[in-house]
Amino acid sequence: SAQTIAFIGLGIMGAPMAGHLVAAGHQVRGHDIAPAGLAQLSAAGGETAGSVAEAVAEADVVITMLPNHPQVEAVVLGEDGVLSHAKPNTLLIDMSTIRPESSQTIARQGAERGIRVLDAPVSGGQAGAVEASLSIMVGGSDDDFASAEAILESLGTTIVHVGPAGAGQVVKAANQLLVAGIIALNAEALLLLESSGLDGRKGMEVLAGGLAGSTVLNRKIDNFANREFSPGFRIDLHDKDMGIVESAARTAGVGLPLAGQVAQLVAAAKAHGLGGHDHSALLALIEDLNGK
Ligand code: NAD
């Protein structure tokens, strides 16, 4: 059934996602501090709001899709934020990628105000947001997940309730560790092939058909072969996410040695000036390390 949805954070991911909710028949009122996303939502038939308070006042559901935990905490917990202005029993679905601990704090403070909270980070990139084919990993209570399911089905194709508050963020952290690590290994494999005098693309194509094949390799093979690194998913967002991996591992009390190395590679790529490039640009860093 149609609901009134506030959507805060209309960036690369949020703007197309909000558009899908309009198309599904919901009344969507969006807010962003930048004008581009507001214009995109208006064009898709949504309403826009000049403040968080205005966006959430009448909402049944509030969705946030913001860069990182400082922005989410400001928008949700801040003086003029969601918790101060949403009606009791409103469902807040935070779809940003942030630290599990921050999601748990938000869920706890929400509960104190009678606001129901889910963490529901996504995987699938800009293409997944545009095509409504995201994978969505959800943390929170069974009842709240059940209330959110129909809305999430307008945004993604794989929607899984993975555990209590913060659990969605732990699964997303594992996702980001896998993606960065697999990119780095594919880059090293390609460098090995080319430095041995072979045709890198041919070699990677046969690997893609065997056990070493992966969604990452299928999606990134052109980026690698053509050294085409426009985003996509930016190195500086992945650097943020490797910090989340580190924080989650610390909370879980485990050491993840390869995660540490991958995090250092991503950090070095950012320091090397590659922060605005696609994460496949780890190849450019590894080539530079080798004087290639
Ligand atoms: P983005 O930078 O394009 O969008 C974030 C939006 O939030 C911007 O439009 C910005 O103006 C807005 N914003 C920032 N502070 C605000 C505030 N205080 N009030 C209102 N609006 C504010 O980022 P994105 O690529 O859309 O990513 C959003 C989240 O999704 C991040 O956590 C990212 O890690 C995650 N994510 C991104 C991708 C991807 O491929 N881009 C994939 C999966 C997950």
TrEMBL record:
- Name one matching Pfam family: NAD_binding_2
* Entry keyword set: NAD, Oxidoreductase
| Gene Ontology molecular-function annotations | 2-hydroxy-3-oxopropionate reductase activity; NAD binding; NADP binding
Q: Name one GO biological process term.
A: glyoxylate metabolic process
Q: Where is the 3-hydroxyisobutyrate dehydrogenase-like NAD-binding domain?
A: 166-285
Q: Enumerate the active-site residues.
A: K172
The cross-references to Gene3D superfamilies, in alphabetical order and at most eight, read: N-(1-d-carboxylethyl)-l-norvaline Dehydrogenase, domain 2, NAD(P)-binding Rossmann-like Domain
Residues crossing the lipid bilayer are: none
What sequence ranges are listed for the domain 6-phosphogluconate dehydrogenase NADP-binding?
A: 4-163
By sequence similarity, the record places it as follows: Belongs to the HIBADH-related family.
- Report the protein name in the record: 2-hydroxy-3-oxopropionate reductase
> In which organism is this protein found?
Tamaricihabitans halophyticus
